[in-house]
């Protein structure tokens, strides 16, 4: 297969440059047309602006001859340059090999339509030849026409072009036996589909890699290069899009041009992402933008005008190719085998591109040469990517072995640490049990001590009241007795709080009852209004709940409110107010107690709910404080599945915010 591909490559190159005619006569008697395909490349007589017969062409006195293949643009005819658009008649004579049973001619592609007449017999044509743009119809096809049996063949090819930048016989017709031409066309199609299939599967593999593995821009651009190589091959190799898929000429030609521009853009981007350390980003970015802009122009402008981009883009292709070759050759100094493979592949692509440009004299007409060049170029990169994948596979194996070793070591370490943790955990459980026992003993002892101390303090309080009933006491003694009574009451209050805290912590169970919210808070206000009146403090209650019924532990809620309201009165200045706001938040009840007291210092806020924590701020009327009230409140709120927060500004007051669920 490789030998056949190489043979076709060389044969295409040689036949494209063959020229065996002089003065519009081809002598093919010794050409062995049963075996060979001969290109009618050489001098043809031309008459621009006229559609003539063979007899009329032969009778012209001052005949003009032009080389074929060549465009008629800028050819001088009697002092006048041919324009790019118009119509003309080409004429030549062929003396055929008489040993061939059935001669045939392949008209190839002539820009942009033609009609072929041999010995005054109209064999056919491609498109429609016309004397105006409205009359002419462009098309590209490679048709094979059987030739009549004759000693001399007078060939007339009438050509018109109004839709492309250059017109005329841009490719030379081929002559051989009918079977040879059919086989050649079939081989070209088979080769085209071989290249398309190979490139398709290259792209499909990288598409799968992008979908099911880590996505990379390099893979994406490789897929795009494969896609537009396939499109370009379909649009120029035997014009498969037109002949077999029935694309209109304007669409196939746009695909041909755009695929060329985007191939340049995506190929350079792919090479950049393959070797970002060697290829400058600026080179790839500029080429990418130029290719995209040229493609957009081609999409939205008439083909006649957009075709003028072809020589510009071919020049840019040559410049960029030399640039990439320079950077790859420079990188080869590092003896990187991937760079060497890439260089070989790019040299093949570069050579194929140059051959195509030279063959067609800046015409963007496809050949198998370019498709083969792209194939070998892509194949070189598949080798590079396969090499990288193999290196990755080897590294993964090495890493896998290292990972197994580390896993084994880690498993051993984990087992050792687990045994150590189990031992420590067992010790902690034992110590925790011991601490729990000690704590229970401490709580029991505290309860016993508090209970036993309560009775003597009550007795002391009774004796103090009896002493105060004696009217003979002097003022100094009365002052001492008052202080003694106050100290005794503080002790009783501390004992009462201790017993209450012990009871709360040891009996967390709830006794749920339904309460009337309005009535409950009226009771709370009524209970504390006497103490508030002594300090001329206003108690203001605002209840704005939709539901008036609420289920909770009434005793615990009473204790919470009593502690918070009494605390607010204790730390509020005279002639100030305390605001109690009750509202609904979904099914929860939100309670806010806002005082206008002395507030809490910033550095003391963290220890507000801790046991036995006395703050630097003192009650405004010298009241006593045990440091347990707020700790009891927090414990009770948590038992009711609620939350308590506060906000305070020192010197302005404190607001406690409770949220309690409907139990």
From TrEMBL:
Annotated catalysed reactions: ATP + protein L-histidine = ADP + protein N-phospho-L-histidine
Domain Histidine kinase span(s) in chain numbering: 448-663
Membrane-spanning parts: 189-209, 221-242, 257-275, 287-305, 311-329, 341-362, 368-386
Gene3D superfamilies: 1.10.287.130, Histidine kinase-like ATPase, C-terminal domain
Root EC class: transferase
Entry keyword Cell membrane: yes
Domain of life according to the entry: Bacteria
Localization terms from the record: Cell membrane
Primary residence: membrane
UniProt GO molecular function: ATP binding; phosphorelay sensor kinase activity
Entry keyword set: ATP-binding, Cell membrane, Kinase, Membrane, Nucleotide-binding, Phosphoprotein, Transferase, Transmembrane, Transmembrane helix, Two-component regulatory system
A GO CC annotation given for this chain: plasma membrane
EC number of this enzyme: 2.7.13.3
PANTHER family reported in the protein's UniProt record: SENSOR HISTIDINE KINASE RCSC, TWO-COMPONENT HISTIDINE KINASE
Protein name: histidine kinase
Provenance organism: Marivirga arenosa
């Amino acid at each position: 297969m490789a030998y056949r591909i190489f043979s076709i490559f060389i044969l295409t190159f040689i036949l494209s440059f063959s020229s065996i005619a002089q003065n519009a006569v081809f002598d093919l008697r010794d050409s062995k047309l049963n075996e060979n395909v001969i290109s009618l490349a050489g001098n043809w007589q031309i008459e621009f602006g006229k559609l003539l017969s063979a007899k009329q062409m032969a009778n012209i006195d001052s005949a003009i001859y032009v080389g074929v293949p060549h465009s008629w643009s800028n050819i001088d005819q009697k002092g006048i340059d041919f324009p790019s658009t118009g119509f003309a008649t080409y004429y030549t004579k062929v003396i055929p090999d008489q040993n061939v049973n059935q001669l045939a001619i392949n008209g190839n592609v002539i820009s942009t339509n033609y009609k072929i007449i041999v010995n005054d017999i109209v064999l056919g044509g491609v498109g429609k030849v016309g004397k105006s743009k409205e009359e002419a119809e462009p098309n590209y096809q490679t048709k094979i026409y059987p030739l009549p049996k004759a000693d001399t063949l007078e060939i007339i090819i009438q050509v018109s072009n109004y839709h492309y930048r250059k017109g005329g016989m841009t490719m030379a017709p081929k002559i051989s036996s009918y079977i040879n031409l059919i086989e050649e066309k079939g081989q070209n199609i088979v080769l085209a589909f071989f290249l398309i299939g190979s490139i398709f599967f290259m792209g499909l593999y990288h598409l799968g890699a992008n979908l099911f593995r880590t996505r990379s821009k390099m893979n994406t651009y490789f897929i795009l290069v494969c896609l537009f190589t396939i499109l370009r091959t379909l649009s120029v190799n035997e014009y498969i899009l037109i002949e077999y898929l029935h694309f209109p000429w304007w669409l196939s030609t746009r695909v041909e041009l755009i695929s060329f521009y985007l191939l340049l853009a995506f190929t350079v981007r792919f090479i950049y992402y393959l070797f970002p350390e060697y290829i400058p980003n600026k080179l790839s970015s500029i080429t990418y933008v130029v290719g995209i802009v040229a493609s957009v122009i081609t999409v939205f402008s008439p083909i006649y005008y957009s075709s003028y981009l072809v020589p510009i883009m071919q020049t840019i292709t040559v410049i960029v190719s030399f640039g990439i070759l320079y950077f790859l050759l420079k990188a080869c100094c590092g003896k990187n085998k991937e760079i060497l493979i890439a260089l070989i592949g790019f040299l093949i692509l570069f050579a194929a591109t140059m051959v195509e440009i030279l063959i067609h004299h800046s015409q963007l007409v496809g050949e198998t040469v370019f498709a083969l060049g792209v194939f070998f170029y892509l194949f070189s990169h598949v080798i590079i990517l396969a090499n990288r994948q193999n290196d990755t596979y080897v590294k993964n194996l090495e890493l896998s072995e290292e990972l197994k070793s580390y896993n084994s070591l880690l498993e051993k370490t984990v087992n050792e640490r687990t045994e150590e943790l189990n031992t420590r955990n067992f010790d902690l459980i034992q110590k925790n049990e011991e601490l729990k026992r000690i704590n229970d003993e401490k709580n029991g002892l505290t309860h016993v001590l508090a209970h036993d101390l309560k009775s003597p303090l009550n007795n002391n309080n009774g004796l103090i009241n009896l002493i105060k009933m004696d009217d003979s006491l002097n003022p100094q003694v009365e002052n001492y007795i008052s202080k003694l009574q106050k100290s005794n009451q503080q002790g009783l209050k501390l004992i009462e709080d201790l017993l209450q805290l012990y009871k709360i912590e040891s009996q967390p169970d709830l006794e749920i009852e339904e309460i009337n919210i309005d009535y409950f808070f009226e009771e709370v206000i009524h209970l504390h209004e006497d103490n508030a009146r002594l300090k001329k403090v206003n108690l203001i209650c605002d209840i704005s709940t939709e539901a008036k019924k609420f289920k909770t532990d009434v005793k615990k809620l009473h204790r919470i409110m009593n502690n918070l309201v009494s605390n607010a009165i204790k730390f509020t200045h005279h002639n100030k107010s305390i605001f109690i706001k009750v509202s609904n938040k979904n099914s929860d009840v939100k309670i806010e107690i806002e005082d206008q007291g002395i507030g809490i210092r910033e550095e003391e806020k963290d220890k507000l709910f801790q046991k036995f924590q006395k703050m630097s701020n003192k009650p405004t009327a010298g009241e006593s404080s045990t440091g347990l009230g707020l700790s009891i409140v927090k414990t009770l709120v948590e038992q009711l599945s609620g939350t308590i927060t506060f906000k305070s500004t020192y010197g302005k007051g404190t607001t406690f915010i409770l949220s309690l669920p409907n139990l």
